Amino acid sequence: MLFPLSPPSPDHVRLSLRPLTLSDEARFRAVIFDLDGTLLHSVPSLTRVLNALFAEEGLAPLDEAQVCAMVGEGAGLLVARAYGARAVGSGTPEDPGHSGRVARFMACYGADPVSGATLYPGAAETLQHMAGRGVRLGLCTNKPEGPTRALLEAFALAPLLGAVIAGDTLPWRKPDPRPLLATLERLDVPPGEVLFVGDSAIDVACARNAGVPVVVLAHGYRQGPVEALGADRAFQGFDDLMPWLAKVAPGDRA
Ligand SMILES: O=C(O)COP(=O)(O)O
Ligand SMILES: [Mg+2]
Prior knowledge:
Blueprint: H1 10-14, E1 30-33, E2 40-41, H2 43-56, H3 64-68, H4 75-84, H5 98-111, E3 118-119, H6 123-132, E4 136-140, H7 145-154, E5 163-165, H8 178-187, E6 194-198, H9 201-210, E7 214-217, E8 233-235, H10 238-248
Parallel strand pairs: 1-4, 1-6, 4-5, 6-7, 7-8
Antiparallel strand pairs: 2-3
Bound molecules: 2-phosphoglycolic acid and magnesium ion (MG).
């Protein structure tokens, strides 16, 4: 281990750090990716599962745009928000029926997280090229570990990733910095040499809390314009991210 993973105080978690400026001269040994909205377009599969449960309960279906706005803070909040949109429960995890709804969702989603999910164009190629050049790759997602691992296997990404931290791997989720810090610790790379690639305000807040530079992909799930996320850089998708990554993360076999 290169450095200790010290648990930050709650104040540290709330701390808002000044955005970093990322020049083309920056160099990274490792790149950590978010999953939903970054590598994987998962909203069709999440919408399918939610609507299957809703149909059993006589609730009107949600559309994908509604579900997009609910993703990013883990399965628990997704389920609370989805049922809240149908006036079932309070829309928060504190609702008495919440844990039963999450258990039903996880049973259904865990049985098939893959149908309807697709990798964004260029995602697999980008990871393959980077891994081939010796760049260390990790994944830090708020999606629970069971479906995360199933999706990584199904899309052949698992062998490319040296570290995977999911939403229930640790007692904390993004925007707490500890999942991201644990990912780079497992990659054995210090925060100054790693870049995080995400899609949401949660990812940017997590990276800031961890002191890790962050770029975002505009194809993902967020509220408002991509510039408002306050990331160090924004890219449309892998077509424009990949050439830039080749410069800033050349790898030790380049
Ligand atoms: O499960 C979620 O809510 C989002 O997952 P993500 O962290 O990969 O975007
Ligand atoms: Mg995401």
